[in-house]
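Action item from last meeting closed. Structure (324 res):
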């Protein structure tokens, strides 16, 4: 009997979309639902019987979610899949040579003429005789969440991939740093610290789709955008006044920043994740009394593109990984 506890998820950075590579990094994942579906093409020709017609093999499609705890080094690969390649620098190459800063700004160009975002190969070992290798995988969406309920930062990535092969499993080697935790976070709204947030969810919706062409295969031939990109930002507020609600009513757009500071790396540098939002806009802000207890507000919002900043949501990651 296979056990989930003996499973692993590995990933490797592809140079060419759909050309599989071996896993180089591994996720400490919580669950996954990557699945290959095979379209059943059924003939509708009439042939003097009541039974449905013959079946033929149609398009193979691969998609699903991967849920995982957020660790600071492997996170860069996930951000690269969703945001695009970062700009990497060393804040102090002489005094702190193990510290690297990676700035992920949402790309405005395509990875290639058949794949919009940087592709990866996923290896999913499910404690069976072979591992499942999904090549040509991209992040259709990526959402982060943490708060007073979820104290280890979590992420859920929706993946679209090109093809599947069964391979011999590799031996995983997991990151030994600690994940980002709820108490390491600070939230700034309109340049002022905000202490009313209980839970927070944010991320990117890339709106991708796999497309087939007449290329002699039963696989998708490209992964392309089919809509505008968006950046959801959702809060649970424990409000002490109407400041944020009035911003919703007035439809103000204000700056926001989310920052998580982890363990010390070297000198004065810590593992750090910073999310910069030049324009935060609340889209719903219900405040209702559901009983005799405390009133909270489940608020939906979005990070909007700012022409001056040239992005809607920029992510800066400081860790010990020299490149992605």
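Sequence:
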């Amino acid at each position: 009997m296979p056990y989930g506890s003996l499973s692993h998820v590995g990933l490797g950075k592809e140079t060419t979309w759909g050309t599989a590579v071996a896993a180089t990094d591994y996720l400490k994942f919580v669950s996954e639902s990557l699945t290959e579906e095979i379209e059943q093409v059924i003939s509708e020709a009439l042939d003097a019987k009541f039974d449905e017609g013959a079946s033929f093999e149609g398009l193979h499609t691969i998609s699903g979610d991967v849920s995982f705890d957020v660790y600071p080094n492997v996170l860069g690969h996930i951000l690269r899949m969703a945001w695009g390649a970062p700009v990497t620098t060393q804040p102090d190459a002489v005094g702190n040579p193990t510290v690297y800063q990676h700035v992920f700004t949402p790309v405005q160009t395509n990875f290639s003429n058949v794949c919009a975002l940087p592709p990866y190969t996923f290896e999913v070992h499910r404690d069976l005789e072979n591992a499942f290798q999904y090549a040509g995988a991209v992040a259709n969406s990526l959402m982060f969440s943490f708060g007073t309920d979820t104290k280890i930062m979590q992420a859920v990535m929706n993946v679209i991939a090109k093809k599947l092969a069964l391979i011999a499993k590799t031996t995983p080697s997991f990151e030994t740093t600690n994940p980002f935790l709820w108490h390491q976070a600070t939230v700034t709204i309109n340049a002022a610290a905000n202490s009313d947030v209980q839970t927070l969810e944010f991320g990117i919706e890339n709106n991708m789709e796999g497309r087939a062409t007449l290329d002699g295969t039963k696989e998708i031939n490209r992964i392309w955008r089919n809509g505008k990109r968006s950046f959801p930002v959702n809060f649970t507020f424990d409000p002490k006044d109407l400041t944020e609600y009035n911003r919703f009513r007035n439809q103000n757009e204000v700056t926001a920043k989310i920052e998580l500071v982890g363990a010390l790396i070297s000198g004065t540098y810590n593992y750090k994740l910073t999310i910069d939002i030049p324009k935060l806009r609340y889209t719903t802000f219900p405040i209702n009394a559901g009983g005799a207890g405390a009133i909270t507000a489940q608020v939906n919002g979005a990070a909007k593109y700012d022409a001056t900043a040239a992005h809607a949501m920029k992510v800066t990651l400081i860790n010990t990984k020299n490149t992605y």
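Note appended to the action item: Residues 4-43+56-169+180-319 form one domain.
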